[in-house]
Amino acid sequence: MRRTVAEHQAAVAGLLQAGGGTRRAAEVLALRDAPGRALAEDVKAPVNLPPFDNAQMDGYAVHAADLAGTAPLTVADPIPAGIAPPPLAPGTAAPIMTGAMLPAGAAAVVPIERADPDRFYSDAERADGTATVRLPGGIDAGLFVRRAGSDLAQGGTALRAGALLGAAQLGLLAACGVGEVRVAPRFRVLLLSTGNEVTEPGADLAPGRIYDANTTLLEAALREAGADVTRHRLLGDDPAVLREDLATITAGSTDLVLSTGGISQGAYEVVKQALADSRVEFSSVALQPGGPQAHGTLAGVPFLGFPGNPVSAIVSFEMFLRPALSRVTGVPAPRPVLGAVLAEGVDSPPAKHQVRRGIYREGRVSLVGGPESHLLHALAAANCLVHLPEGVASLPAGSRVEVTLIGPIPVEPLASGAPIAVYRAASGGMDSAERTPT
Amino acid sequence: MRRTVAEHQAAVAGLLQAGGGTRRAAEVLALRDAPGRALAEDVKAPVNLPPFDNAQMDGYAVHAADLAGTAPLTVADPIPAGIAPPPLAPGTAAPIMTGAMLPAGAAAVVPIERADPDRFYSDAERADGTATVRLPGGIDAGLFVRRAGSDLAQGGTALRAGALLGAAQLGLLAACGVGEVRVAPRFRVLLLSTGNEVTEPGADLAPGRIYDANTTLLEAALREAGADVTRHRLLGDDPAVLREDLATITAGSTDLVLSTGGISQGAYEVVKQALADSRVEFSSVALQPGGPQAHGTLAGVPFLGFPGNPVSAIVSFEMFLRPALSRVTGVPAPRPVLGAVLAEGVDSPPAKHQVRRGIYREGRVSLVGGPESHLLHALAAANCLVHLPEGVASLPAGSRVEVTLIGPIPVEPLASGAPIAVYRAASGGMDSAERTPT
């Protein structure tokens, strides 16, 4: 059947959702093993953050009774961070360091630079107990005090189920004293590369054969997207061999079977032939490259079939599988989609959403390679996919397009002597509404 | 000394460059172990890509002598992908599948849908050798032929030294038959968290003490940025203990020593005290949070000291260390910097580059939490750093700012029933020149 890109995106996401790969038992991991994983449950804070009222500045802790006045205050023992200080008596002020616990009785912290003298006394100067300090008076209660629980109250939700654990999220859990977390299981993919022409890299290449790029390409893409590739295999073009391999699939060990090749209109389409009587549907999606697509289930396990050309396979991954993984598993983070100005004119088949490869920088995008789906060298030089939606027949240079960022924006190497810059990926002039690709 | 953000960025990048952490011997890795690494040397293609002239479509391979005419051609044996076909005789046309090797003598491929009949004969129909096909005539030589080496010629540079190896780059190497690569060594960081108040997560928390967030936060950030944390340690506030630890550092085993805390103006600044007579400089950078900074060398090893509050530490990492790693090591990919519209008004100290935390979506950014540097819960909810450059005292709602994307742009979970969308990170109206943050 024929489908739009959006229809097939919805079908793939629905397939993964129904597959239930994310409903397996959660894993418990130490924080250092959890980066890039999604939380399986809400985490509540077992402590207040901060755990106690503390000083936001180096200065003097002032008693509640002494906020208003300017009379000299006797200097008490200093309060470093990390101790539980004795209560503060009225008429005294205690030197206090940033992060140190506010003593009982204290209501505010006056920064050292507003005190007179505006430097801390040495231990020797304080030794006889007669040192005094004058503060400006009229001090608001709470000045430069970080209240216990002001960042996060004990029992409050630190992170919600589904949260993707990056540095900040893991740092928050550490600050709460949480040493391990329950995370969703990794999504497990069985990867099958088909075709009699395909040879393992490193082996000798017989005439008429090519090296298998798809296993490496898709395994790297899936792992970068937080999935495990549990098994991969090169298969020829014999439907009986493929059927035999697929018969071993069980729902318990795999969340997705992903094949490349063999789903088109040719005379030797191994996946199509092997799955002719299965619950797998073969579609023609209005996408170039990546038009032929297969999806369905095998023994209850979600199945996707991508076309065999490497560029078609990675475009299929970026357009269908990666967004579905983001939405269904919470991992990986969605790709940024940016507006950009085309550096050159381009033609596109109006009946299809064409995806070209480009190099994006400073709000402009230059195309690399042509539209053909075998141009892997051009793909490797690209940092974005350039979207030429359905209905577009040609665009002149200077037109605005959307690009999906899939690689790094180039920076000058340091040796060039260029100043260090924050490179911006932004460009101007596009409205900011979300859209489905059309 | 006082510095601008750009001055300190240049100093940190220069420090890492001079440190020579990237000049160690390269490692040789199998492709599946190489994602996220940078190539240590140029890789030349040992084969042509594609390796041989092949069909771009399913159709008929046509002899050079038969391109012009429309006379019926005898149908030869079909050519599947993966074999070396026999030469094509004039007056015959061979059914050929996408990716299959063009036979000697053939000059073009006519797609099956332009042939008459516009379907392939079955084996039975071809059995007596009398099947013929009519082609449209006036066929250009090279039509739907992918020429050997047209993507990348044998001996050409597949990837340059320094290239960051993602899925596409690894896929290209696999397609070239390259099974392993020489990559730059990982950058090795020794991480020290200082302060008497700091307690390991999971242990009991004594009054006045807090859990150590910085080790978890910075280890996750460094690993996500492609660096190894070779050792980390919690240290108290005793300069003698710190000096003892630092004395064990040797240039052979560490590329950077990174400490948090103890570099400010208080009375107990352990890093400052321990390194008073060293080659480490203590600066006040016009940045909030993250103003106090230390940098220099210890026993010839680059040293950076970040402030101790977790938000200050991660802002220091994102503003100074991560960009320097990108430029000096080629790993990690630089963060996207986007233009955004402020959802609310904001104040900022005009003498400093203030970095706030925000949630960016659809071209707009909302601030989360205040400017204070202890607000780790707010940081964990943010997906970007919001830049309020030096000279800005306040900005009204609707103002344009730059944001550095540090986390995922939120998407609706599938259960909401919202249509699958490509979320765009673009927004409009900013010029697209690069700038140093000022």
Offer a few descriptive terms.
Molybdenum Cofactor Biosythetic Enzyme, Chain A, homodimer, alpha/beta, 27% strand, 8 helices, molybdenum (chains A, B), five-stranded mixed β-sheet, 438 residues, 18% helix, Molybdopterin biosynthesis moeA protein, domain 3
- Write down the CATH topology of the largest domain in chain A: Molybdenum Cofactor Biosythetic Enzyme, Chain A
Biggest sheet character of chain A = 7 strands, mixed
CATH homologous superfamily grouping of the largest domain in chain A: MoaB/Mog-like domain
CATH class identity of the largest domain in chain A: Alpha Beta
| Class of secondary structure makeup of chain A | alpha/beta
Portion in strands of chain A? 25-35%
Using CB atoms under 8 Å apart, which protein chain pair has the greatest interface? A-B, 149 and 149 residues
The CATH architecture of the largest domain in chain A can be given as: 3-Layer(aba) Sandwich
Mean of all residue-level pLDDT scores of chain A? 90
Output the strand order for the largest sheet of chain A: 1-18-20-21-17-13-16
Using only CA atoms, what is the Rg of chain A? 31 Å
Helicity of chain A, as a percent range: 10-25%
- Provide the domain count of chain A: 4
User: How many runs of DSSP E, i.e. beta strands of chain A?
Assistant: 28
Number of helices, where a helix is a run of at least 4 consecutive DSSP H or I residues of chain A: 8
| 3D shape of chain A | elongated
Keywords (chains A, B): Magnesium, Metal-binding, Molybdenum, Molybdenum cofactor biosynthesis, Transferase
Family (chains A, B): Belongs to the MoeA family.
Pathway (chains A, B): Cofactor biosynthesis; molybdopterin biosynthesis
Catalytic activity (chains A, B): adenylyl-molybdopterin + molybdate = Mo-molybdopterin + AMP + H(+)
